[in-house]
Amino acid sequence: MSQTVGKAVCPYCGVGCVVGAEVQENRILRLFAPKTDAPNFGMLCPKGAYLKKVFVPERRLAWPMIRRRRGEPPEPVSWTEAIGTIAERLHRIRREHGSEGIAFYGSGQLDTEAAYLFTKFMKGAVRSNHMDTNSRLCMSSAVAAYVKAFGADGPPPCYEDIEHAEVFLIIGANMASNHPVLFQRIRKRRLRAPNVRIIVVDPRRTETARFADVHIPVAPGGDAALLLLISKRLAAAGRVDLRFVQRHTEGYSGYLNYLESLDEKELLRACEVNPARVEEAVELLLEPARLLSFYCQGINQSTSGVEKNLALINLHLMLGEIGKPGAGPFSLTGQPNAMGGREVGYLSHQLPGYRYVWDPSHREEMEALWGIPRGSIAPQPGLSAVPMFRALAEGRIRALWVAATNPAVSFPDANAAQEALRRAELVIVQDCYYPTETAEFADVLLPAAQWGEKTGTMTDSERRVVRSQQFLQPPGEAKPDWWIVAQVARAMGFSGFEHRSAEEVWDEFRTITRGRPCDMSGMTNERLAVESLQWPCPHPRHRGTARLYTRGRFPTPTGRARFHLVHVRLPAEVPDPEYPLTLTTGRIPAQWHTRTRTGNVPELNAQAPYPFVQVHPETAQLFGMREREWVYLVSRRGRTLVRVEITDAVPPGVLFSPFHWGETFHPETNLNRLTHTALDPISEQPELKHCAVRVEPIST
Ligand code: SF4
């Protein structure tokens, strides 16, 4: 029997590791990490290494299914019937309720081809901007801050900057756990260059924090106050790159005045940090050194997420630490193609190529490129994720198409999200796996090909575009996501969806990015078949761009980066006598999102078998909690079962629990039943990192 070898991007975190597979008779014999392939150069974490185990036939959604009546099991149908049913029902809803009666909720798991065609379908064909994805819950605050400060989205640095950085500032990111291969590079950098220093800002003493020279256990939500305090001290000490600030930025004098007006004691109170830790961090930053910051949901999932991002960007601008090797503010993405989704414009205010629905010239450009009549694209941003689900619950949105995600578990205030799905007139769920918690609400289920079963393109956190190959046949009738949306569009009578391959979709999309900040027009299919490239890459001989803003020119009207004033705000829900504890949520290394994939891998389940809550010994004593005891965590919105883990890695009064386990694990587990839907006013990202809870024994 002949063996074949294929490569595909790991479907988990935003590091975007390339995984190789030796295949025979549609079975993976061996997985490996190709040593010469960026970005991982031979490294994989356990999740990537166990990918072979995710192919569990009985857990796959392998045939289209229709649920004839709510409460009854769905039954397998042909693609013709499934697509015909969707086309007919979407047409009817559009006739009766207008285009805005239809919404789409997707994910950073979709490859660029699928995310692009869904965007074209919703915004160009259906003409509804009610399109959003779980990237809204993950890093939309980082996107908004990049746009405000630099004029365009996109992390300026690249992974190679790890090899040049002299000081790392890791804030709101547990990289050792959630971006492990990247963190391995930081470990190696430190081994090779012992003078390198690492500052970690995190309420918890995580594995990342244990590796730090300075760990600042900031109060949950206190990051902006801490960053302002550090910036104020540095400015007072004259540690400002005035040449860079004067030539390449605007708004510094106002920011400096603002910093000087802030009261240090109040800032210290707001971040609840030992002044000695702040002093240590300031000491490390006083001498000019290449500063590379990594950050993730810890500062994004907040009602002041954009301001926290801007505080960090202000610090980099003030120090001139951007646009050169080893420097810059680097927002990590949580998912493998969250960047690609941003590039195709899959959030409710975006259009492809970093264009925006509110900009008339952008709408006109896209209408011309898509060959649709002028005025087709609605000028108002659609509803973002949380308001979209509210509109679904209230009947203003009638149909929701969910693809490659599981909002019944991952959405804040999950009880309310599930109620919205229950009330919807039509729920379409497109996924690789079945059952899932969201699939329980589906009227139509569409089987998607998964990792290794399709050709597709993804962009990792460093703007590197990588082509994944197909080396397995999908089970049953499962199809690539792009094919599914194209068939529905054609069945609805829309033109512009006649693509015969992922390569044809890619060719259309890359040309649309020509001249835009994320220009990928030089990334032909032929090139992507043999190499990965970082954008911008504006012509077929261009070698790609490792880092942005190297000449100090930013895509703002003045060409300068902008300082913004940053305010210190309390989280939306703080502890009170009824709910006296702060819950912060997150991820662990052995599980992924809602476990639809990792839940099938025995080795990963053995490492993390149960939902748990970390509790400080003082808190445990105060509330009578015992090690390994099962308890309910209760908030104003619901309750969930967790097992107690007593540790001083969390501060007194703060609980940490991961959100991975939903009702398929146990009917009473779903951490997001506790979280709330308060939003950042700019990014509309919900504050998943912070809510008030109490603990109840399971006997009540
Ligand atoms: S670091 Fe991320 S991308 Fe790399 S193997 Fe692990 S989960 Fe996959």
User: What is the count of distinct domains?
Assistant: 4
Number of helices: 24
CATH class of the largest domain: Alpha Beta
How many distinct beta strands?
Answer: 28
Strand content: 15-25%
Strand arrangement within the widest β-sheet reads 5-4-18-17-16-6-7
Q: Please give the radius of gyration in angstroms.
A: 24 Å
Residue-averaged pLDDT: 97
Structural class: alpha/beta
Catalogue the ligands.
iron/sulfur cluster
The biggest beta sheet reads: 7 strands, mixed
Q: Percent helix among the residues?
A: 25-40%
Distance between the terminal alpha carbons, to the nearest Å?
Answer: 61 Å
Broad shape? globular
Enter the CATH topology name of the largest domain.
Answer: Rossmann fold
Q: Do you know the CATH architecture of the largest domain?
A: 3-Layer(aba) Sandwich
pLDDT under 50 segments (min length 5)?
none
Give a quick set of tags describing it.
700 residues, alpha/beta, Phosphorylase Kinase, domain 1, Rossmann fold, Dimethylsulfoxide Reductase, domain 2, seven-stranded mixed β-sheet, six-stranded mixed β-sheet, 24 helices, binds iron/sulfur cluster
What does this structure look like?
The mean pLDDT is 97. With 700 residues, the chain is α/β, with parallel strands linked by helices. The N and C termini lie far apart (61 Å). Strand 9 (197-201), helix 7 and strand 10 (214-216) form a beta-alpha-beta unit. Helix 3 (112-126) runs parallel beside helix 15 (338-344), helix 8 (223-236) crosses helix 12 (275-286) and helix 8 (223-236) runs parallel beside helix 14. The protein contains 24 helices and 28 strands. A seven-stranded mixed beta sheet has the order 5-4-18-17-16-6-7, with helices on both faces. Strands 24-26-25-28-23-27 form a six-stranded mixed beta sheet. The radius of gyration is 24 Å and the shape is globular. It folds into four domains: 4-56, Phosphorylase Kinase, domain 1 (2-Layer Sandwich); 65-138 and 336-534, 3-Layer(aba) Sandwich (Rossmann fold), CATH 3.40.50.740; 141-331, Dimethylsulfoxide Reductase, domain 2; 581-697, Barwin-like endoglucanases (Beta Barrel), CATH 2.40.40.20. Iron/sulfur cluster is lined by residues 10, 12-13, 15-17, 40, 44-45, 47-48, 180-181.
